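We were asked to recover a plausible sequence for a given structure. The inputs and outputs are reproduced exactly as logged, with field labels preserved.

PROBLEM: sequence recovery
POSITIONS: 206
GIVEN STRUCTURE:
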């Protein structure tokens, strides 16, 4: 009896080879973000691996398990928004983009001029999303070329304003307590001074 040369494993490898052959990163976006922000941006803004999706390292296509390959293939077919996919080669921000826009819009953006691409992407993303919770929206981080998933990575002035807004109540309470404390200390010292002078006056001979 002749064995079937097309085992399940070989079929997976064939499918993966076809997928890898057509899978490409989006260096146009990387170039556009760098140009718009004036900052050097690598693939790790959207991808798990800083060198992009192609390769055999963790977070790259050649390292995916069978289940991850299936999820990757499903993500590549997410042409419309809100497909609720989680591509294993993308980080949370990359998947946020795919689920917010869909691949169809990304292909439209990819064809635009670099100086327009990033700003148009920012216009289409949800304005209230802040994945790292640093008080700076993902859209602002995209335009600034800072990482939307690293809380400490942000333009200093934007981080200062965000932290000020987040802690304004505590800052006002601290200032109020400090002012009241200084006011109370001033009056306490003034009272000691009056009491001391009164004692000195009593001790002076007539």
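RECOVERED SEQUENCE:
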């Amino acid at each position: 009896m002749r064995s079937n040369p097309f085992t399940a494993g070989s079929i997976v490898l064939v499918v993966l080879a076809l997928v890898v052959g057509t899978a490409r990163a989006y260096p146009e976006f990387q170039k556009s973000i760098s140009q718009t922000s004036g900052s050097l941006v690598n693939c790790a803004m959207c991808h798990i691996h800083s060198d992009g999706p192609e390769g055999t390292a963790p977070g790259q296509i050649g390292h995916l398990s069978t289940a991850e390959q299936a999820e990757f293939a499903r993500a590549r077919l997410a042409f419309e928004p809100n497909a609720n996919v989680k591509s294993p080669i993308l980080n949370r921000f990359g998947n946020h983009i795919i689920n917010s826009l869909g691949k169809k819009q990304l292909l439209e953006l990819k064809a635009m001029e670099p100086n327009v691409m990033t700003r148009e992407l920012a216009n289409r993303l949800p304005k209230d999303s802040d994945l790292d919770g640093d008080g700076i929206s993902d859209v602002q981080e995209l335009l600034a070329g800072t990482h939307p998933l690293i809380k400490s990575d942000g333009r200093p002035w934007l981080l200062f304003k965000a932290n000020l807004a987040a802690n304004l109540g505590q800052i006002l309470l601290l200032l109020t307590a400090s002012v009241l404390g200084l006011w109370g200390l001033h009056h306490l010292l003034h009272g000691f001074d009056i009491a001391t002078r009164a004692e000195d006056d009593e001790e002076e001979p007539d």
